[in-house]
Structure formats: structure tokens, C-alpha cells
Amino acid sequence: MPLRPIDFLSTFFLSLCIPFTTYAQHDSLRISLDELFARGAEQHLQLHADRLKEQMAEERIRDARTARMPDISIGLKGGVLGQPVVWQSGLNDPTRPDTPDWQQNYTVDFTQPLYQGGKIKYSIRKAGLEQDIARLQTATDRADIKLELLEQYLNLFSLYKQDRVLNRNIEESERRLKDIWRMKEEGIITNNDVLRSEMQLTNDRLAVTETRNNIRLVSQRLDILLGMDERLLLIPDTTLLEQTFQAGTYGEYVDRAFLSDPAMQLIRKQTELAENNIALTRAEQLPRLSLTASNTLARPVSRTMADLYNNNWNIGLSLSYPLSALYRNRHRMNEARQNVLLMRNTEEQKRQDIRMKVQAALLKHHEATDRVESLKLSVKQAEENYRIMRNRYMNQLAILTDLLDADNLRLNAELQLTTARTQVIYTYYELQRAIGNL
Fold first, then answer.
1. How many other C-beta atoms lie within 10 A of the C-beta of residue 297?
2. Strands 71-80 and 92-95: what pairing?
3. Rounded distance, CA 378 to CA 369, Å?
4. CATH number at 5-66+118-285+325-434
5. Burial (0-12, 13-18, 19+ Cβ within 10 Å), 179
6. Is there a contact between 296 and 328 (Cβ–Cβ < 8 Å)?
């Protein structure tokens, strides 16, 4: 038996109260785009990890600089001295001279590197390049994270707009259902139109529930990424949709991206690091010169075994040449040269990728801008079309299917307009990401 209007509407309103009651249990927060970016840069765990890597790179620089400082060591040696045996004529008639039972040895050694073939200099430069790479990786991740947060933020725009449009559509459907019941009772239409209208309301109700669940899911995702209470419902700043986002030319974006894109700068630093590794490998084949000094206090006297302390010191230069490096480093040198070629290839691939991304984002931006203007007119036309179809249906000049189609067309036009507006914003910031301005 079909539901009467009052019964159906009571059931429907009860179902709508459930999501709103659930919403009321959670706090909400209106957050602007600047606040989103600022909090994301501060709280995102990936950026925390990047900052730790920067600190580690800073420690490696300090460690590399200590190679310029002298090596100083202190040695202490003590122990039991065994009984020596001396043969003065062959192996016959051994004698055992008197010697002390204990020996001691105290040493201080000093070594100051003077020339290492450039190994120290290139090691410090390597650590500095690694620190630059860590900072650029942080900047690259920060830009990617902002773009990721923006995508979720704009998704909230669409979901809240969909929620409002669906609720407005439900109100219209309820009014329409009352008229349909009245027309049925007057015998103008059949029960089929009543059933189809009630089914439409049921579908709208389910769509509202699904939309509100999606709002909670997207809010939770952003809450977690921003380090906030995951039960907090975030509300985007709707004034962002009314702002104008003018894009530049393709050539301007490409040129700026080649110079300023953190990802591009990162690859350049990696190429410099590969070139530095060639010099560092070559330094292994060069001679090494050091200033050395030492002082030793020992007992007994090693030559006479007299139980006396003996102190001696020395100062000089130490020169060594690693001949084995001439053949051991050959393959490492070849690998280092090939790595430079590989990084230059990667740099060229990145240039190609930038050109493709800028062109795609720029075309999508213009496309979305044009779509917004077209859809504004489409929304007005869809509203007028629905008004006409409703009047015609009420006068029995059109069937219910035509009216429902006009209703769906109006709903889709509004949602498409919101999607186009958010796409304008996203493609604009995508272009800013490409030129290193995000």
C-alpha cells in the first residue's frame, strides 16, 4: 500500500535528521586556503622527515670539515717483560741477563694533513651539495603537499555544494510530491507518477547521506594531515570561488619553471654532486702529504734493557703515493663519469616533463575558465527549462519523465559549474607549482 504524503514526508524528515544529528556531535572549523597551506607545511609528517634529513646533512658538513684538523692520539702501554735469552756463540751456552720485570710506553702522536689530492675539499663540497639537495627536496615535497591538500580542499567545495543543491532539490521534490498527490486524488494522474516521485525522493535522500559521509571522510583526511582532531569537520572558504585567477603565457611559465622549479633545481644539484664524485674519485689516485710529530716516553731502554726511562721525539713530513689506486679506481672513475651522463639525461627528461605539464595545466585552466562562463548560462537555461516543464506537467502537457529529466539536468548543471570553478583554481595553482611559486 503506497504511503500517504504525510506518512512519507514524516519518514523522510526523520531520515534527514540522522545525518544532521551526527554532524552536531562534531565541531566544525572554517579554514582558509592560506591557513591550510601554513598548517600543512608545519604539521605534515613528510616535511618533518625532510627537516630531520636537513639536520643530518648539516652534521655531515661539520664532520667533513673536521678532516682539516690534525689527528692527535695518546697511547699508553704497560705489561710484564719476559726473561730474554742470549746466545753468544751459536746456540750453546745460553745466558739470561738481568732485566726489569715491567715495561711502560707513553706516546703522543700528531698528524696534520697538508695535501690529500683534494679529497678533503671535495668531501666538504659533497656534504654541502647533499645539504642543498636535502633543502630542495623539502621545498619539492612542500609544493607537492600543498597541491595535494588543495585537491582535497577543493573536493570539499564540491561536496558542500552538492549537499546544498541536493537539499534544495529535496525541498522542491517534496512540494512537487504534494501537488502530485493532489492531482492523483483528483483523478488527473495515475499512481505511477506518485511512486516515481517517491522513488526520486528516496534517491535524493541516499545521495545526501552519501555526500555527507564523503564530507566527513575528506575532513578526516585533512585533519590527520594537518595534525588536528580527526573528528573536526572542516568548512572551506567559499570566497575563493569568486576570485579571479589569470594565467600567463606558455613561454613565461616554461622559462620560470626551468629556473625556479625546486624539482628542477634538485636534479641540477644532483648533477653537480655526480661531477664532484669524479673529482673525489680522482683524488684517491694523488699523493698525500702530512706533517707528523711524535713524543715517546718508555722504560726500559730498548737497546740495553737498562731499567731507565727513555724519552725521544721526532717531527717530519710523511709522503705516500697509492700506486694500487691506479688500477683499482679505474672502474670507479668510469662509473662516476657515466653517473654524470645519467644525471644530465635525467635533467633533460625533467625539462620535457615540465613542458608537458605546463602545457596541459595551461590548456586545462583556459578550458575550465571557458567552461565556467558556458555553465553559468547553462544553469540559467536549466532553471528556466525546469520551470517550463513543471508548468507543463501540472497542466498535463508533459509526462513526469520529462519533468524529472529537467530536474536532473538542473542539478547536474549546478554541480558541473562548481566543478569547473574548482578546476580553475586547481590548474592555476598547478601552474604556480610548476614555476616554483607554491
1. 14
2. unpaired
3. 14
4. 1.20.1600.10
5. middle
6. no
Grid cell digits, residue 385: 527549462
Q: Where are the domains of the chain?
A: 5-66+118-285+325-434
Work out whether strand 71-80 and strand 102-115 pair parallel, antiparallel, or are unpaired. Answer: antiparallel
- Angle, vertex CA 411, rays to CA 239 and CA 387, nearest 5: 110
Among 285, 367, 293, residue whose Cα is nearest residue 322: 285
The dihedral over CA atoms of 34, 39, 40, 43, expressed in degrees to the nearest 10, equals 170
Q: What is the DSSP letter of 85?
A: -
Q: Strand pairing partners for 75?
A: 107
Nearest alpha carbon to residue 82 among 62, 97, 68, 60? 97
DSSP E strand stretches across 166-230: none
Cell digits of residue 111: 698528524
Return all residues near 365 (Cβ < 8 A) that are at least 6 apart. 245, 247, 424, 427, 428, 430, 431
Q: Label residue 93 left, alpha or beta by phi (over 0 means left) and psi (-120 to 50 means alpha).
A: left
Taken in order 187, 188, 192, 193, the sign of the CA dihedral is negative
pLDDT value at residue 352: 92
- Answer whether 85's CB lies under 8 Å from 96's CB: yes
* CA–CA gap between residue 78 and residue 289 (Å, rounded): 32
Which amino acid, one-letter code, is at 125?
R
What confidence tens digit (pLDDT) does each residue in 334-378 have?
A: 999 999 999 999 999 999 998 998 888 888 888 888 888 888 888
**The three cell numbers locating residue 79:** 705489561
pLDDT at 5: 39
| pLDDT for res 188 | 66
Phi, psi of 114 (to 5 degrees): -105, -40
321 phi-psi bin (left φ>0, alpha ψ -120 to 50, beta other): beta
CA distance 411 to 415: 6
8 Å CB contact between 413 and 236 = no
Residue ranges in the chain whose pLDDT is less than 70? 1-26, 186-190, 397-398, 400
What is the pLDDT, as a whole number, of residue 218? 92
Shortest CA distance to 167 belongs to which of 15, 16, 380?
16
* Of 327, 316, 369, 298, nearest in space to 104 by CA: 298
Rg (CA), the chain: 40
Strands (DSSP E) contained in 157-309 are 233-236, 288-299
Which strands sit side by side in the sheet containing 288-299, from one edge to the other?
71-80, 102-115, 288-299, 310-320
Residue 418 has a CB neighbour count (10 Å cut-off) of 21
**Alpha-carbon gap, residue 341 to 151, rounded angstroms:** 36
